[in-house]
Queue: 2 jobs
Job 1
Amino acid sequence: MSEAASKHANRDPADDEAFKRELVKLIPHLRAFARTLAGEPAGADDLAQDAMMKAWDARASFQMGTNMKAWTFMILRNQFYSEKRRSWRQTQLDQEAAERTLVAVDDPEAPVALDELRMSLAMLPAEQREALVLVGAGGFAYEEAAEICNCAVGTVKSRVSRARRALHAILDDGSYERDGGAAGDAMRSILADAERLSSAR
Amino acid sequence: MIEHTPNEERRKTSAALDEARLRQQAIGVRLRQMFDEVVNEPVPDEFLDILRKADKRSSENG
C-alpha cells in the first residue's frame, strides 16, 4: 500500500465524496488563478491539475468547513513557485510565456483593452500581480490573501496598492506596446469604461 | 501643493482624484472580467478524468 493510501485508509468514504464535490466546484477558479500565474493556457492547466491532485492527496489534512478555496489556492501557488525554483530557465520562460499569452488571447472577438490589461498585468512583479488578482478578481479578503501568499496582511495591502498604481501607469503610457501601435489606446478604452461607470452612478 | 490654493485649484485637484478613482474602478472591473472569463470556460474533461482515476485508486487501496 502506498503511503498516501495508508494515510487515507481510515477515512469515511462520505467525507471523500464531500471533499471531491467541493474540489470539483473549485476547478474553474483554480484554472483562472493558474492562468494569471503561469500565463499561457496549456501550462496553466497543467499547474491547475497538479494543484488539484495535491489537494486530493492532502485531503486528510483539510478541515472540512474551513475555507477550501483559499486552501487550494495556497497549494496551487506553492506548486507554482516550487516548479519555478526548479527551473533554471525561469527568466526566459517568463518571457516566452508572456509572448505566448499574446498569441493565446488573439481572439478577434475579445475586447481590445482586455488583452492590454493582460499584457500590462504580465509586466508587474509576480508578488504584486498575485496580490492584485487574489484581492481584485478572486474575491479574497486581504487576510485570506495574506494566508495564501504566506505573508503579513499589511504586505498584501501594500502590494495591491503598488500593483494598482503600476498598472495604471503602464496602461497610461502604453509601455506594454511592442509593435509600435498607438500608445494610449488602452487607457482611452479604460476611460470609456470609467465614463460608463460614472454615468451609471 | 502650493500655498494659498485658490478654490479653482482645489476643485481641479478633487476632480483629478475623482478621475483617478474612476480609472482604478474601471481597471478593477476589467480585472474581474478577465478572471471570470476563465472561470466561466467549460472545464476540460481531463480534470475530472484525473480526479476520477485517483478516487478509484484510493478506494481500491483503502
Job 2
Amino acid sequence: MEIIKNFGIEPVLLIAQIVNFLIILFILKKFLYKPVLDTLKKRENLIKEGLKQAENSKLEFEKALEEEKKILKKAQDQARKIVDDAKIQSILVAKKIEEKSRIQSEKIFDEGRKQMGEEVKLAEKKLMASVNKLSIDILKKSLKETFSDKEEAKLIDRAIKEIVK
Amino acid sequence: MVSFAAEPIFSVGSFKFTNTLLDTFIIDAIIVSICFYISKNIKLIPGKLQNGVEYITETLYNLTESVAAERTAKIFPYFMSFFLFILLINWSGLIPGVGTIGFFHVADGKKELIPLVRAASSDLNMTLGLALVSLVATHLMSISTVGIKNYLSRYFSLNPIFLYVGILEIIGEITKVISLSFRLFGNIFAGEVVLSTVSSIYAFLFPLPFMLLEVIVGLVQALVFSMLTMAFMAVLTTPHHAPEEVRHK
C-alpha cells in the first residue's frame, strides 16, 4: 500500500485514464481506422480493376490489330478478286462491244449498199428518162424535115411506146 | 526534483485534476481533431495529411498482419491505438514548456515548481491503466476467439504438471501488467529526470543530445508496449491444445 501511495496511484485517476483511453480507442477505430482502411481497400480495388482493364485493353488492342490484319488481308484479296473480275469482265465487254460494233458496221455497210443500189437504180431511171427525152428531142428534130406533123406524132408515139417497153 | 506522483493543478471536490491528466486531454484533443478531420475529408486521391496517416496506418496494419494473420482485424485497432497514444504522450514531454512552465507551491517550507503540463506516461496511473486495458482486452479477445473452455484449459488442468504451468501462466499474466506499466513509466520518468537534471546544469544546447535520445526512447517504448500487446493478443487468440492433443501431434 505504501508503494502504491509513493507511486501516486489513485483509483479515480486510474479509472479516468482507462475510460479516457477506451474513448480514444473507440474514436480512433470509428473515425480513423475504418475510413482509412476502407479507402485503402477501395483504392486497392480500383488499382486492381484499372490494371485488369489495362490488361484487357491490351489484349483487345492486340485482338483488334489481328482483326485489322485479317480485314486488310481480306480486303486485299477481295480487291484483287474485284480487279481480276473487272479484267475478265472488261475483256468480255470489249469482245461484246467488238461483236456489236462488227454487227452494226455490217448492218450499216449493208444498208449503205442497199441505199447505194437504190440510188443507182434511181439514177439509172433518171438517166433513162433523160436519154428518152433526149432521143425524142433528137428524133423530133431529125423527123421534122422528113415527115409531116401527123406522121411525126405517130412515129414518136410508136417510139415512145417502144422505149417504154 | 520530479516527484513520482503527478501533481494536482486544481481540484473538483475530492477529484484532483493532475498535470498528467491535462496532458492526456491535450493529446486526446489532437487525436480527436485529426480523426474528425480525416474522416470528414477523406478522398481517394489523398492530400499530404491523409497520405501520412495512410502510410502509418498501412505500415502498422501490415506489421500486425505479419504477426496476427487472420486475426489482424481484431488486434490492429488495439495495436495502433496503443502505439499512437503512447507515442504522442511520450513525445509531448519534449515540447518546450511541458514540465517547465507551472507555478510555485510551498510545501514544508520548500518552494517547489508544479508544472502545468507533464508527460502523462511519467504517471503510473496512466501506464497502469493502459496495461490493464491491454490485459483485459487480450483475455476478452481470447475468450471470444477460442471459446471459454479452450481459454480455461490454458490455466486449469487435471494434470498436476499442466496445472502448475497454468498457475505460472496466471502469475505471468499479473507480471505482464506490472512489466508493461513499469517499463513505460520507468523509461519516460527517467527521461524526464535526466532532462530536468541536464537542463539545470546548463540549459542551452547541452540537453539536445538527451532530447534526441528521449525522442528515440519515446518511439521505442511506444513500439515495445504496443507490440507486446499485439504478441500477447496473437498468442492468446491461438487455440490452446490440450495435453492429449499435443502428445498426438
